[in-house]
Amino acid sequence: xxxxxxxxxxxxxxxxxxxxxxxxxxxxxxxxxxxxxxxxxxxxxxxxxxxxxxxxxxxxxxxxxxxxxxxxxxxxxxxxxxxxxxxxxxxxxxxxxxxxxxxxxxxxxxxxxxxxxxxxxxxxxxxxxxxxxxxxxxxxxxxxxxxxxxxxxxxxxxxxxxx
Length: 163
What we know:
The chain is α+β, with helices and mostly antiparallel strands. The protein is 23% helix and 36% strand.
């Protein structure tokens, strides 16, 4: 089962940082079980939102060259607040360092300006052809799909005073 935990990308500086949002709706399928009388976004979904936003930053930074961006490590993960239906999780991720295969980022999810989750993420970048040469023919299709999805998600907010 796949969950898209980013509704919109509101700011992006390739090679530096991204700001994205997830508006939590009471219609989210997983809230039926987590928890029926006190529905909140599961911590693992909050972490996945950090991962997804970070992956979009990496893809855009590298002009969609990596078709696979995997969470390799999540370090120093700290949860400090709930995300409830009707609230918006704002995710910010900043690139700290990068080598030829991995990117390390500092990521945080906030609700109404209060930290809900913070983590240091290590993401591994690759293509299908690097993972398994016979699957290399999937790279152009995956790249095209990711670019189309990015265009649907990326709606930057105007900077105050720039109108």
